[in-house]
Amino acid sequence: QVHVVESGGGLVQAGDSLRLSCAASGRTFSSSAMGWFRQAPGKERESVATITWTGARTTYADSVKGRFTLSGDNAKNTVYLQMNSLKPEDTAVYYCAAKRSYYSPFDYWGQGTQVTVSS
């Protein structure tokens, strides 16, 4: 069984920064990719940023490019999301996810951490 745990959310003002942390663990688990997703009330879950460990290839949603940075440690199945210049529209529950295979969808998910940005 694979466990994914994220933390670091909170209540901040517009323009502030937050850093989210996530770790995936399991018996001999080694992720091929990890990512951050978010879901606002009444909205669909969307991809925020992902990293494929081979080549450290990252993707970002257009709405967060230049403001958010994903980093991590492949050996530790750990990722971080540095969020700068936060906007009220960034308010959402942020979820961390991982997958074993490059070819599989993200299938291991954390419980989520709330990020609230006030104007």
Give a written overview of the molecule.
The protein has no helices and eleven strands. By secondary structure, it is an all-beta fold. The strands form two sheets. Strands 2, 4, 5, 6, 9, 10 and 11 form a seven-stranded mixed β-sheet that branches. A four-stranded antiparallel β-sheet has the order 1-3-8-7, with no helix packed on it. The termini are far apart.
What does the secondary structure layout of this molecule look like, with pairings?
Layout: E1 3-7, E2 10-13, E3 18-25, E4 33-39, E5 46-52, E6 57-60, E7 68-73, E8 78-83, E9 92-99, E10 108-109, E11 113-118
Parallel strand pairs: 2-11
Antiparallel strand pairs: 1-3, 3-8, 4-5, 4-9, 5-6, 7-8, 9-10, 9-11
Brief description of this entry?
By secondary structure, the protein is mostly beta strands.
Keywords:
11 strands; globular; seven-stranded mixed sheet; four-stranded antiparallel sheet; 119 residues; mainly beta
Rg on CA atoms, Å:
14 Å
- Spans of at least 5 consecutive residues whose pLDDT stays below 50 are none
Distance N terminus to C terminus? 40 Å
Overall form:
globular
What's the SSE pattern?
Answer: EEEEEEEEEEE
Mean pLDDT: 97
Query: How many runs of DSSP E, i.e. beta strands?
Result: 11
Percent strand? over 45%
Largest sheet: 7 strands, mixed
Which structural category fits the helices and strands? mainly beta
